[in-house]
Design brief:
Rossmann fold, 20 helices, single chain, about 45% helix, 2 domains, binds cobalamin, alpha/beta, 6-stranded parallel sheet, TIM Barrel, 14 strands
Length: about 475
């Protein structure tokens, strides 16, 4: 009989236990684990999941693990997941001392020395796991485990690996009584349920100092994208299997490759898909490729996540964003022109950032008037150049892994006045009355546009359902 593996998703640092479906952080699958699951199942292994977000507490975890009694556990970790991952691994070692523990994910890859200190870990896999994880399971099963504890994951051919195993999460969530009207939790009104997240590629060619080089260690310096046909095939599968009505791309920057996007939109339209979708982009790309923006809007794009980051050019340079304030403004105008909602990512409280520079960002947000505000207190993430800068200059106020998150809960950087930043963050989101009125009008218009003759026909069962 083949060995049994339980994958563990420890993402409770923010919202805690019993948090499933409380928003994107607790309502989305981990593609990393779901992809490992597909790869291992394709090799004949039995794989299930324990998602800490669905459980009531550590006693519950202990009981579920004891009942499942797997031979192997595989734990994923971002830096912010360190504490719950550490605790889950310790409990697992008590419950079944002979089980084999494998860890992987961004933190293991980016902060290997730190991860090596976690007790009871048998193997650490850095980089991508689809090829290496099943190989390791085979070796364990045969009783011929590798001599090295650290294994560098072999990057897979993204078209050759099976699609993300969503059932890993959905079956587990259902087990705990979660009613799933949507595979993943929708988060904006433009994207109705059933909603899913998908990934068309890995990596990012830009060099933002708050992200790089960490992500290069994970996925390599070049972006690897699935073929358009492979992505379209997955979307077809998602329509057939889950009747998805909308989706979002998780790719760091889907619009990085204009040719890919143009081919995708052509084929998406040719397939007859009409589901609305969101993706991440950049201000400079939007300005440079307005034709692509228009084409995406025709295909169903309803919103861009844009990292505006700052309303000040010196700050944009300091963080190596590669964009300018003027491009931020123009990108917002282009989005409006094509009816694309704006999810604005921006940060405050960077090292060296002055009050006046923060106020520039407040002013920019008032000017852009995004549909969705996503502000952050700058947080130095291990593995990035800005993290190293903060350590070198002794600027960090982070004392625990739980604080490696951008949500403004506590001070992160020495020398910043967080009372002022809290005010600035609130002020940046205060709409001018005229903007509030414009937004109200846009929403009414969006809602009205949602009822189309094609959709009415589909609702009445007169055509094939894609929405
Ligand atoms: C989607 C996403 C999210 C989503 C969903 C997260 C989720 N459930 O997975 C949301 C929006 C909720 C989110 C939240 C956060 N995220 Co996020 N997120 C991403 C993003 C864009 C894609 C993740 C993904 O699916 N990647 C594709 C999959 C295939 O890759 P993967 O998960 O890394 O898994 C592969 C390998 O790592 C490895 N692997 C992973 N686990 C394991 C386990 C084993 C046993 C093995 C063998 C191998 C292995 O194999 C996998 C397959 O190849 C990444 C950037 C990126 N491009 O990856 C950032 C990223 C992972 N997030 C990051 C951060 C910082 C956060 C937040 C802390 C942000 C914040 N709020 O401050 C929160 C933390 C949430 C929490 N746990 O509490 C950082 C992590 C950096 C770090 N040092 O840990 C990243 C890398 C972005 C960045 N460059 O800064 N995030």
């Amino acid at each position: 009989m083949s060995i049994r593996t339980t994958l563990i998703y420890p993402g409770i640092a923010g919202l805690g236990f019993n948090s499933l479906k409380l928003g994107m952080e607790a309502g989305w699958i981990s593609h990393g684990l779901a992809s490992l699951s597909s790869a291992a199942k394709a090799e004949g292994f039995e794989v299930d999941l324990i998602d800490l977000r669905a459980l009531s507490g550590w006693d519950h975890f202990r009981a579920v693990l004891a009942e499942r009694a797997p031979d192997v556990i595989g734990v994923t970790m971002m830096s912010v997941d360190y504490n719950p991952a550490f605790k889950a691994i310790s409990i697992a070692a008590e419950v079944k001392p002979e089980l084999v523990t494998i860890i992987g994910g961004p933190h293991v890859t980016i902060a290997l020395m730190d991860s090596l200190r976690i007790p009871h870990v048998d193997y650490l896999v850095t980089g991508e796991g689809e090829v290496t994880f099943p190989k390791l399971l085979h070796a364990i099963e045969k009783g011929e485990p590798p001599s090295s504890r650290v294994l560098r994951g072999e990057p897979p051919d993204l078209d050759a690996i099976p699609f993300t195993d969503r059932s890993l999460f959905l079956d587990e969530w259902r087990k705990w009584g979660y009613d799933l009207d949507s595979p993943e939790v929708p988060f904006v009104e433009e994207l109705p349920p059933p909603f899913v997240t998908i990934i068309a590629g890995r990596g990012c060619l830009y060099h933002c100092a708050f992200c790089k080089p960490g992500e290069d260690y994970l996925f390599g310096k070049r972006t690897r994208r699935r073929s358009v046909d492979n992505v379209i095939e997955e979307i077809r599968h998602l329509v057939d299997e889950y009747h998805i009505a909308s989706f979002m791309f998780h790719d760091d920057c889907l619009t990085e490759d204009r040719e890919w996007v143009m081919e995708f939109t052509d084929k998406y339209i040719a397939e007859g898909f009409t589901m609305p979708f969101f993706c991440q982009s950049r201000a400079d790309i939007i300005v440079k490729h307005e034709d692509m923006v228009e084409r995406m809007a025709e295909a169903g794009l309803k919103g861009y996540f844009i990292g505006f980051e700052s309303g000040n050019d010196r700050v944009l340079k300091f963080i190596r964003k590669g964009t300018t304030v003027e491009q931020n403004r123009q990108a917002a105008r282009i989005c409006r022109k094509y009816g694309i909602s704006i999810w604005a990512n921006y940060m405050m409280g960077l090292p060296t950032e002055t009050r006046e520079e923060v106020l520039d960002t407040v002013r920019l947000m008032k000017e852009i008037d995004p549909d969705y505000y996503s502000p952050a207190f700058f947080t130095p993430h291990p593995g990035t150049d800005l993290y190293d800068y903060v350590v070198e200059h002794d600027l960090s106020r982070i004392t625990d892994y739980d604080s490696y998150r951008r949500n403004p809960t506590e001070p992160k950087i020495k020398g910043q006045d967080y009372e002022f930043l809290k005010w600035a963050m609130a002020e940046s989101q205060r709409r001018k009355p005229i903007n509030a009125f414009r937004r109200w009008t846009r929403r009414q218009w969006r809602r009205a546009r949602r009822i189309t003759p094609a959709k009415v026909a589909r609702k009445l069962g007169l055509t094939r359902s894609t929405a």
